[in-house]
Every structure is written in structure tokens, then in C-alpha cells.
Amino acid sequence: MSKKISQQFLCSKMMLPEHCAGLKEYAAGKQWAENHRRPDIDQQMHEELQRTLEQALVKQESLKITILNDSGYRTYSGIPVHSNPASGLICLQNGRNRPKTVKAAEVVRIERG
Hints:
The chain has helices at residues 2-8, 17-35, 43-59; strands at 63-69, 72-84, 89-93, 100-103, 107-112. It is built from three helices and five strands; from the N terminus they run αααβββββ. Helices cover 38% and strands 31% of the residues. By secondary structure, it is an alpha+beta fold. The protein has a domain at 43-112: SH3 type barrels (Roll), CATH 2.30.30.
């Protein structure tokens, strides 16, 4: 039986280079899509993120905010200066001249830190 399985893929050794390149490109695209897949955030998780942000705003605590956009995952840390629900922006002061602004829709995780 194992001989049948090993001989089943003998034909793949004779693939055209264009097909091999296409398969590699397909696999890379699939891997990129998996790495950039947005995690499911349910209502309870959304409320927890909101509560953590509001507490940090009141207490002036440092946060680590992880976002997911087209360039992948990025983590920013700093003290939240303000959050504007109307525009969906969160401003973090991280000790530099200008505060870093992140879109609330891109936020995947908020941690104290």
C-alpha cells in the first residue's frame, strides 16, 4: 500500500517550472492571507478592550495596542491621551514630540504595560 502512495506523486517530479512557480506563489499568498486574517472579536471582547482603554485614559496608565492593517501586525505602546469614538481614533503619547494616532477599527489587542 505504501508503494501505491509513493508512486502516486511520481508525476509531480515532471512539473513545468511555470507550474512550480505558480504553486509556490499560491502557497505564499495563502500564507500571507493567514497571517493577515483578522481575529474574531466578539461583543464581550470588544467591551473588555473598551474598558481597558477607558481605565488607562482615566488613570494615565501605559498601554500596548496591537493593530492589524495591510502591512501586518504592529504594536504601539504609550499613554493614551484621548480617544474619539466619532472619528474612531486613539492617540498615544509615547515620549516623542507628536502622539501616535491609531484607528480603533484596526485594534486587535490592548494590554496594560
